From TrEMBL:
Keywords: Signal. Residues 1-21 form the signal peptide. This is HmuY protein.
Length: 364
């Protein structure tokens, strides 16, 4: 009997060891991408391109934001940085010698209004927009980093940009902006670990205020000065990878310029990307299909520029009309560390309407 008990005890110990070994093996499983990829048509909304489309590659999901739903993005990290809504051509310039927001009148900023513009082919206007690389919080912002001492924070003239165009748009064309959204005077200060935004119409003798605590689950807290409220725009910082949007970019020697069909990456959330170009006579589609994980070049990933895809994927003035470049595709490392290959398959709808793109992506 004693011998039998020893045998049973050994079996139990062995079984426990095997069971524990299995548990340890499964505590750190190999990461498996939660999607097989897809062919996707983001809902940009047509030729006026009213929507920003925030897309998560890992879950094949999109979140839509009307471009005019927000005005300022308040960085939710350790720094205090304010970013303008470049999709609607916003700009901001410091009002000289202004110390009291309630005393500023339109007559005081008439000359400055001529300068604080986007896409007027003045090379100097880049001063009034944010770093187009999106390399925040270190990148330049038109509204300077918010200082701890309230009186050291300037009052800004803010060009509120353009409304979504509401008229008829010729087939194959785009309209990136409609009527002017007007002007505001704005001062942003700190309130503990929160932002306090003071703002008003130019001739108002009193101002409104919004106090916004930082939410570290997101890249930014977004506010609408027009609606006097905080608004939800981007998904959480690890839950989107690329965004289709109208975008204020720069052209060397010409200053700021507005682009349709633009794609930015979530570099602030850790997304990296690079472009693969294929030389003739090789086929871009064949190269895309054959590209595998072992072909990834880690040295090429860019994490400090949101414009790696940008407008580089399409040609709006091609000899044969609008076209998607067939000689390139993109490698993306998403916010969660998964790798994907992505190529664009369409710029317009079947009838030729802009703002109806399509892309294909697959995990690596």
């Amino acid at each position: 009997m004693l011998k039998m008990k020893k045998i049973l005890l050994c079996l139990l110990v062995g079984a426990s060891f095997i069971s524990q070994s299995c548990i340890n093996d499964n505590e750190d499983p190999v990461a498996v991408t939660p999607t097989d990829g897809a062919v996707f048509s983001p809902n940009v909304g047509g030729a006026a391109q009213p929507n920003q489309v925030w897309f998560d590659l890992g879950t094949n999901t999109e979140v839509l934001t009307n471009r005019t739903n927000w005005d300022l993005a308040l960085y939710a990290g350790t720094s205090f940085k304010v970013v303008l809504n470049s999709s609607i051509m916003m700009a901001a310039g410091k009002i000289p010698n202004a110390t009291n927001i309630d005393l500023v009148k339109q007559a005081d900023v008439t000359a400055l209004m001529e300068q604080v513009q986007v896409a007027n082919f003045n090379p100097a206007n880049v001063t009034y927009i944010d770093d187009v690389n999106g390399n925040f919080p270190s990148g330049y912002t038109a509204i300077e980093e918010v200082k701890p001492t309230e009186s050291e924070n300037a009052i800004y003239l803010v060009n509120m940009g353009k409304e979504i165009f509401k008229g008829t748009i010729a087939n194959g064309s785009v309209a990136t902006g409609g009527d002017s959204r007007g002007w505001m005077k704005v001062q942003v200060v700190r309130s503990g670990d929160s932002y306090k935004v003071k703002y008003a119409e130019l001739n108002d003798a009193t101002h409104k205020e919004l106090t916004i605590p930082k939410n570290p689950a997101y890249n930014y807290n977004f506010i609408s000065l027009k609606k006097n409220t905080e608004v939800l725009v981007q998904p959480e910082k690890k839950k989107w990878d690329i965004c289709f949007t109208v975008f204020t970019n720069t052209i060397a020697g010409a200053g700021s310029y507005i682009y349709a069909d633009f794609v930015i990456s979530n570099n602030l959330g850790g997304v990296g990307a690079y472009e693969v170009r294929i030389t003739a006579p090789a086929s871009g589609v064949e190269a895309f299909n054959n590209f595998k994980a072992s072909d990834i070049d880690q040295s090429k990933f860019m994490y400090n520029d949101q414009r790696i895809i940008g407008a580089n994927w399409r040609n709006p003035v091609g000899a044969n009309g609008l076209e998607v470049y067939g000689d390139r595709f993109y490698i993306i490392k998403d916010a969660e560390g998964y790798y994907f290959k992505l190529r664009f398959t369409r710029l317009t709808s079947a009838s030729g309407e802009r703002g109806r793109p399509q892309f294909e992506y697959k995990p690596l």
